[in-house]
Amino acid sequence: MTKTRILFICNGNIFRSLTAEFALKSALGDSSEHEVLSAGLVPAPHEIVTFVREYMEGRGIDISGHVPTQFTDNSLGAADLAVAMGTEHRDKIADRYGVRLPLFSEIAYGTVEPLLDVFEVVPNWRQNETEAAAYGCALMDYIFEGMEGFIANMGAFSGISAK
């Protein structure tokens, strides 16, 4: 049986798309008929920051084996449903491939809002770790909380359904 492939896309594949990948895998469980992946548009290397690791550990999710994946020209064709985490990702894909991807928020919540990266919200985020972690963890909560709606609505965006 061929699994339906769902791909989440962001910049570095170390925060937003990574979180969506693991949140959906967690929500679908081991018996899922879906293969869930994530990729980044910006060339590596990228390092997963501490608050992302700690957040996932707190949810009992091991991301130690995650290696940031680079989005390639073949990524879209291999996915049954590709999802942009932010409008900049959606726009880059549209400009390059002529395809308008749905945003995570569209599928999960029925809203059109980008999920902003930490550096877009917290100035000097590397020096302001507490504020960066607070924003990052709140965004990861938003992604996890949206998975029920995402699963319920993803068929409307790709012709697939959760099983």
Overview of the structural elements:
The protein is mostly helical. It has one domain (4-158): Response regulator (Rossmann fold, 3-Layer(aba) Sandwich), CATH 3.40.50. The chain has 8 helices and 3 strands, in the order βαβααβααααα. It has helices at 16-28, 50-58, 75-78, 87-97, 104-109, 118-121, 129-145, 147-158, and strands at 4-10, 34-40, 81-84. The chain has a 3-stranded parallel beta sheet. The longest helix is centred in the last third of the chain and has 17 residues, at 129-145. The chain is globular, with a radius of gyration of 15 Å. The two termini are 13 Å apart. The model has no long low-confidence stretch (mean pLDDT 92).
User: Strand count, sense and closure of the main sheet?
Assistant: 3 strands, parallel
State the helix count: 8
End-to-end gap: 13 Å
CATH superfamily, please? Answer: Response regulator
Whole-number radius of gyration? 15 Å
- SSE topology string: EHEHHEHHHHH
Q: Helix share of residues?
A: 40-55%
CATH class: Alpha Beta
Query: pLDDT average, as an integer?
Result: 92
Strand order of the largest sheet: 2-1-3
Number of domains: 1
Q: What's the shape?
A: globular
The structure class reads: mainly alpha
CATH topology: Rossmann fold
